[in-house]
Recover the amino acids of this structure.
């Protein structure tokens, strides 16, 4: 979903998706969706990120697919152009392992680094176009995809530290005042 989406709209989008999924795929018994995650811990996600857990009927009751892989491919195709969101269909354990290894929930992630976001975006689109042509590739995303939830190129900027000299600051009229939790003055 778009990075600027509100929590309410993210919830509405996922509710519409759940209803569409249940209507199109009788193999789905129920769904549970989590929008975003707390801002602490190893897996903090913003409200434009959601995880959907799908419970399927026993495979002998399926009417549209013969295997889990075929069903995921059908779901991926059915929701490829879903308004306002992009989906990656996978297994929960596989997604967790992928995220631990690459920092993304995708099975394959190609990371580009550099200071020029325009160059990064152009190269990312070139790579995505090549990947899309690979037989068996699915859900390949690039920055040129029309969905606002797609990948973005981010320039990495060096972090800096700020240290003040109290005497010089005081000479310029700035006043400090306070004590950190550990007891140090600032």
């Amino acid at each position: 979903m778009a990075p600027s989406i509100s929590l309410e709209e993210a919830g509405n989008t996922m509710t519409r998706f759940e209803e569409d999924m249940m209507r199109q795929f009788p193999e789905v018994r129920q769904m549970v969706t989590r929008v975003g995650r707390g801002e602490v811990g190893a897996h903090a996600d913003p409200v434009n990120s959601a995880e959907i857990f799908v419970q399927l009927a026993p495979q002998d009751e399926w009417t549209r697919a013969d295997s889990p892989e075929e069903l995921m491919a059908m779901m991926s195709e059915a929701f490829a152009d879903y308004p306002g969101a992009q989906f990656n269909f996978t297994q929960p354990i596989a997604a967790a392992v992928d995220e631990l290894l690459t920092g993304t929930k995708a099975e394959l992630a190609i990371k580009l680094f550099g200071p020029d976001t325009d160059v990064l975006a152009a190269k990312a689109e070139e790579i995505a176009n090549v990947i899309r042509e690979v037989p068996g590739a699915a859900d390949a995303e690039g920055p040129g995809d029309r969905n606002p939830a797609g990948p973005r190129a981010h320039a990495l900027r060096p972090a800096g530290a700020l240290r003040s000299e109290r005497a010089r600051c005081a000479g310029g009229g700035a006043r400090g005042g306070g004590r950190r939790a550990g007891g140090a003055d600032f």
In short: The longest helix spans residues 7-24.
